[in-house]
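Technical annex, item 7. During the second reporting period the consortium partners agreed on a shared format for inverse folding records so that results from different sites could be compared directly. Each record opens with the tokenized structure and is followed by the designed sequence. A conforming record, contributed by the partner at site C, is shown below for reference.
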């Protein structure tokens, strides 16, 4: 079985209750790094912030990690906008133009958002499968990063 990216969030197996091993072998699209990708600088920063804040392990989720990446990406866009036009009176249009100028907005290596006139999303992903090791679920890469096709409907004439 397989599914879309949100089906790979680590809060989904919570629905399995005391039977997390039932998701063993499930595969899905993974457009971001995960906690076990300790070579990724953004994951290292998120892990440090998580630990320093004294968060419980139950909060170590995909949502926490991808939100952390979003803040890193926003930081990069705002710095680029300020460096490009100055920091006084930055508008939303200035921020959008900074994103478009960057083209690929980096979220600390956790995720990358491709931005142009028509796109504001990740265009790269991995395929990972959930593997139960007898104690915990692990998200293992089976297909490394590849470019995602544009699945939007063609414009109507």
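Designed sequence (site C submission):
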């Amino acid at each position: 079985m397989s599914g879309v990216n949100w089906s790979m969030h680590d809060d989904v197996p919570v629905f399995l209750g005391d039977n997390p091993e039932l998701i063993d072998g499930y595969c899905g699209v993974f457009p971001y790094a995960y906690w076990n990708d300790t070579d990724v600088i953004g994951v290292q920063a998120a892990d440090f912030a998580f630990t320093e804040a004294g968060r419980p392990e139950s909060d170590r989720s995909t949502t926490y990690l991808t939100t952390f990446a979003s803040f890193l990406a926003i930081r990069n866009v705002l710095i680029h906008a300020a460096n490009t036009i100055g920091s006084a009176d930055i508008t939303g249009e200035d921020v959008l133009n900074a994103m478009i100028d960057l083209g690929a907005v980096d979220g600390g290596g956790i995720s990358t958002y491709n931005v142009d006139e028509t796109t504001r999303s990740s265009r790269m992903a991995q395929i990972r499968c959930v593997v139960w090791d007898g104690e915990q679920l692990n998200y293992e890469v089976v297909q490394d990063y590849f470019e995602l096709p544009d699945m939007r409907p063609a414009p109507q004439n």
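The chain has a mean pLDDT of 88. The chain has one domain: 19-147. All partners now use this format for quarterly exchanges.
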